[in-house]
Amino acid sequence: MFQNGLKQDMSRCAFPIAIASNVNQR
Question: What is the spatial distance between Cα 20 and Cα 17, in angstroms, rounded to a whole number?
């Protein structure tokens, strides 16, 4: 139960982090 919520939270956070890393690479 906790792990499932954590996974959902990570997927919500991963998208802006991926965008930020793309911006940083440029």
Answer: 5
Cα angle: 11, vertex 15, 19; to 5 degrees: 160
Please state the pTM of the whole predicted model: 0.31
- Residues 5 and 26: their CA atoms lie apart, in Å, by 33
DSSP state of 1: -
pLDDT digits (tens, 9 = 90+) for 1-26: 567 766 777 666 677 777 878 787 77
Alpha helices, H only, 1-26: 2-25
